[in-house]
């Protein structure tokens, strides 16, 4: 028997071909950025304890990884250096060393694979003896003194071959200062991916383990955003856009999909989302316990970013997703 139900949404789900035909969103390897941690030394590929499957690479191993990623179709990597404690100071001076780890990592990527895009994080924390993204004086983060350092850092990275500068510090006015510094140094083609709505989140824990970069004192709440706020994200987006950002980013990802959606609806710029370390660790840990199916939950997570409106996804899952796509 059947009822009179002329409208039946299940008709569009009747089999796999039909479901594929009407599918609204797709995750494409072209849109993924793979974050990579780099360390000093040789022949090191050391797993991050709180991020199984994610490694810290010495430069020789980084080169191998870059070739593998390129063969899988990944066209962009975000680099994060783990700087030796002895090289850290209050001014993050090591960040300007042309032979420093970050600059050498950029060169390694470019020498291995010239078309691989290098997305370079600009913030003081990996280099700061205080473990903060900005310059610290008497327990305060000094905005404008930090800006000059960030501008120099961006130019140092551009000189090493950075394609895109990604300020993750959340100082006021940083995009304008970095744009000006890059232009004055002749790097008018180096882009800026702004960490526009970067929240003061507990989901960054494993990342700080990987780089040993947790703040020595206090927290990041005077510069990173309050997780309770969404209109404030729009204000940051407006400023970064006016200051010359080429792309805007929301971070973390999963708990902030509403912000991704707002940016996608209101901005003309490409919108990126950062699927951060703690989000990666959650899926890994649950899968290790046998509580979740890893591959399905990863694919569903990446799809959620697309559905929310993200154009670009930074994710530690990028490589494995590319591998699955290749085998499929
Ligand atoms: C540094 C920076 C952080 C992340 C990216 N750049 C950590 C922080 O702000 O404390 C986090 C990324 C992640 O958790 O995967 N400014």
TrEMBL record:
The keyword Cell membrane does not apply. The keyword Lyase applies. GO terms for molecular function: porphobilinogen synthase activity. Its EC number is 4.2.1.24. InterPro entries: ALAD (IPR001731), ALAD_AS (IPR030656), Aldolase_TIM (IPR013785). Keywords: Heme biosynthesis, Lyase, Porphyrin biosynthesis. Pathway: Porphyrin-containing compound metabolism; protoporphyrin-IX biosynthesis; coproporphyrinogen-III from 5-aminolevulinate: step 1/4. It catalyses: 2 5-aminolevulinate = porphobilinogen + 2 H2O + H(+). It holds the Pfam family ALAD. Homooctamer. NCBIfam families: PRK09283.1. Belongs to the ALAD family. This is Delta-aminolevulinic acid dehydratase. It comes from Lentisphaera profundi.
């Amino acid at each position: 028997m059947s009822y009179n139900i002329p409208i039946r949404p299940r008709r569009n789900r009747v089999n796999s071909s039909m479901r594929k035909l009407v599918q609204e969103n797709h995750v494409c390897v072209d849109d993924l950025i793979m974050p990579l941690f780099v360390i000093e030394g040789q022949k090191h590929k050391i797993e991050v304890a709180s991020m199984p499957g994610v490694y810290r690479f010495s430069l020789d191993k980084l080169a191998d990884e870059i070739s593998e990623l390129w063969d899988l179709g990944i066209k962009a990597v975000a680099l994060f250096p783990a700087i030796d404690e002895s090289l850290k100071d209050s001014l993050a001076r090591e960040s300007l060393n042309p032979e420093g780890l970050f600059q050498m990592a950029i060169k390694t990527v470019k020498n291995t694979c010239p078309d691989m895009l290098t997305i370079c994080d600009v913030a003081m924390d990996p280099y700061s003896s205080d473990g903060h993204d900005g310059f610290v004086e008497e327990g305060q983060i000094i905005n404008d003194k930090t800006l000059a350092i960030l501008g120099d850092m961006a130019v140092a990275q551009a000189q090493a071959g950075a394609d895109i500068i990604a300020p993750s510090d959340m100082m006021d006015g940083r995009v304008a200062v970095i744009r000006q510094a890059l232009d004055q140094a002749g790097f008018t083609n180096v882009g800026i991916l702004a960490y526009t709505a970067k929240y003061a989140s507990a989901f960054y824990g494993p990342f700080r383990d990987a780089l040993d970069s947790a703040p020595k004192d206090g927290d990041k709440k005077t510069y990173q955003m309050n997780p309770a706020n969404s209109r404030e994200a729009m204000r940051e987006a407006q400023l970064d856009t006016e200051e010359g950002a080429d792309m805007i980013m929301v971070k973390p990802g999963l708990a902030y999909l509403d912000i991704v959606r707002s940016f996608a609806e209101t901005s003309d710029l490409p919108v990126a989302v950062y699927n951060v370390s703690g989000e990666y660790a959650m899926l890994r840990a649950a899968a290790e316990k046998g509580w979740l199916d890893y591959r399905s939950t990863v694919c569903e997570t990446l799809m959620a970013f697309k559905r929310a409106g993200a154009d670009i996804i930074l994710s530690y899952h990028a490589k494995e997703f590319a591998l699955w796509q290749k085998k499929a």
